[in-house]
Amino acid sequence: MHALSRLPSEAAGPRFALIIPTLNAGGDLPALLPALAAQTRQPDRFVVVDSDSEDGTRERFRAAGAEVQRINRATFDHGGTRTRALECIGDVDFAIYMTQDAYPAAPDAFEKLLRPFDDEAVAVTYGRQLPKAGATPAEAFARHFNYPSTSEVRSLDDARVRGFRACFCSNSFAAYRLRDLRAVGAFPSSVISGEDTLATAALIAAGRSSAYAADALVYHSHRYTPGEEFSRYFDIGVMHAGASGMLQTFGEPTGEGVKYLLGELRYLLSHHPLGIPECLLRTACKYTGYKLGRRHRLLPHRLKRAISLNSGYWREIVGPADGDAGLRPPQ
User: Fold this and answer.
1) What topology is assigned to 12-223 in CATH?
2) How much is the pTM?
């Protein structure tokens, strides 16, 4: 087992918590736990919010020093669950959020993710995601496009130049200044996805800044099928359909999609020309899924649940009848 060490707060700098939502994370733990234990900056609180895993996830995280909070799987909410986790971390200044399939790529990943907070205007930072070993050329390009090698800080002024890109963020590896996050209500509840982008947009709109820390590295990539890309972009379209205020401030993401496609075609032409037909198929699936998501109110409820990547979002009954949505004491 790899138990996380605890460094004295005065030696380690500002106090921070590490929060990881999990579901049957057993396959990720051989890579994740040693990478967490090796960090030069260790969290003052380490909280795992587990959705009724059945593979020993909770027990292995407890052995690694985590405080494990168990929730009913049916009540998981991308925004609400992460917000409620803040009630469990005590008096800390920052919170790092990760997903179970993102593995720190170097011992200083936490240290470098927190460094931009030296600027008091910065309310949120996110790190650079590298493709995992064996990633396809399409996966590698996605990491290259979304997570370049140059760090930057973005404010509301950048929205006029960068558009929708100015509020991009990923809770697979991100950190928040908690006084600022709480001031904007933390993460929105009952959103199908994109709680990180919505929170970042609210922080920037409130006059704070977002920092991309290109030297804070994790391995994180996904091998989506064309069908999964359709479902994922359907969910993104649903999120955007309910975020008119964000889109009015930062603009529509259409230009980024065109830029991404042209960049991927150039990349594949140089690295994997045989992948171009699949790229065009995946792009068609993304576009169709996104457009349907933006118009999801016209679709039957049963169809939406069938094509969504987050089908639990479409539960017909939402509320106490679904079980306790809050965090239960450690078990």
Assistant:
1) Spore Coat Polysaccharide Biosynthesis Protein SpsA; Chain A (3.90.550)
2) 0.90
